[in-house]
Amino acid sequence: MKVYLDNNATTLVDPHVFEAMEPFFVQKYGNPNSLHAFAGETHPHIKTAMEKIYAGINAKKEDSVVITSCATESNNWVLKSVYFEYILTGRKNHIIVSEVEHPSIIATAKFIESMGCRVTYLPINNEGLIEAQSVRDNITNKTALVSVMWANNETGAIFPIEEIGAICEEKKVLFHTDAVQAIGKLPINIQTFNVDYLTFSAHKFHGPKGVGALYMKKGKELMPLLHGGAQMGGHRSGTLNVPGIIGMGKAMEQAVDALDFEMSEIREMRDHFEDELLKIEDTFVVTPREKRTPNTILISFRGIEGESMLWDLNRAGIGASTGSACASEDLEANSVMEAIGADEDLAHTAIRFSLSRYTTQEELDYTLDVVKKAVARLREISSSYSYAPDGHKSGLTAGH
Ligand code: 7TS
Q1: So where are the chain's domains?
Q2: Residues 36-59: pLDDT tens digits?
Q3: pLDDT at 395
Q4: Distance, CA 10 to ligand 1 centroid (Å)?
């Protein structure tokens, strides 16, 4: 059996999305910015797709939703352009990000830090959450931007972005949120709170890879990261990714339609799976489940290297993740586990299971069976494992 439980890394392209994209490779391939009829064939489809994308987040017509190549580009764009526009001129010199942002924020923050910007990395609490108060405490009159993700990719923890948005509005600081893990998993209505910039990526909600977007509120448009032929209203140059945009439009429409299912059925399946996993002794889960996206579990099995577990799962046809976005060959500790204060031992044992609307109960039953066998086998051969359920010093939820 093949089971895909790494949907926070990427998702399968929904067949309806693929179907919508297909005509735009061989049949309708005109450059939409050309002046002939070939171009005209794509225009109405791009317009409809963009309307679906605007509707999916409830952006206003006068706001800019600019198509990029991925969330990494959108995140780079916000931090680098804020640096060039607000910090390099010397009026402001500080930004705030959380310490558990995706590397596309952390590495960019470190880059602008090396150029002389001051960066505050907000800590998470022992439930894996950012506290809005810590944003307030760290804003100064030199702060240009706060960037805090909507939901964390490793734990699924949902951060208080409405409260953070309100603080930024009050303090007149720009606010960006990386909503990559929120689209399709949580209700998104950007009219209900203050946000200036919002990032998302189609392949995380059953759209194609290589297409993302940056929402910019009217009046808060940033200088372009890519200069050139002035496509996308001059906000981002480069020939439009026509199939990608059409795919993202369809995927967004479907994500909105499937949201209730995600928040009820997928959540129930996840909760049941998690209950069963926690029956395995000496297991720990990060962040209370009501404070998480409905599809995500980050779980530690004491005494088992995450990578060894992944290997056993992989041999049984199951794709999961250690939750560590690091591509290094070293066996790195999970950064979120470390940040919440889990002991060194546990931080190496975290496995992320992330479900999607294509996950079935049969697949989860099979996975549970494989996990139980893997835990027994790996603990048996572990030289260091001995049962110590209270040997952790963090806010982890312990199983048996
Ligand atoms: N932001 C978040 C919150 C993410 O989870 C990811 C990808 C990105 C940005 C980057 O998206 P991309 O479109 O540029 O690829 N996250 C993961 C992950 O958790 N495991 O693999 C990729």
Answers
A1: 3-9+260-378, 15-257
A2: 999 999 999 999 999 999 999 999
A3: 63
A4: 8
| Segments in the chain below pLDDT 50 | 325-329
Mutate to test the pocket of ligand 1, among 78, 177, 180, 355 (most ligand atoms within 8 A of CB): 180
Which overall architecture, per CATH, does domain 15-257 show?
Answer: 3-Layer(aba) Sandwich (3.40)
Q: Is 168 a catalytic residue?
A: no
> From the CA of 399, how far away is ligand 1's center (Å)?
29
* The predicted structure's pLDDT at residue 357: 97
Task: Give the model's pLDDT for residue 327.
Answer: 45
Which residue minimizes the CA distance to atom 17 of ligand 1? 9
Strand partners, 375: none
Domain covering 3-9+260-378 in this structure, CATH number: 3.90.1150.10
Buried-exposed string 138-164: b where 16+ CB fall within 10 A, e elsewhere: ebeeebbbbbbbbbbbbbbbbbbbebb
How far is C-alpha 204 from the geometric centre of its chain's CA atoms? 8
Q: What is the rounded CA–CA span in Å between residue 284 and residue 280?
A: 10
**Angle, alpha carbons 15-18-19 (nearest 5°):** 85
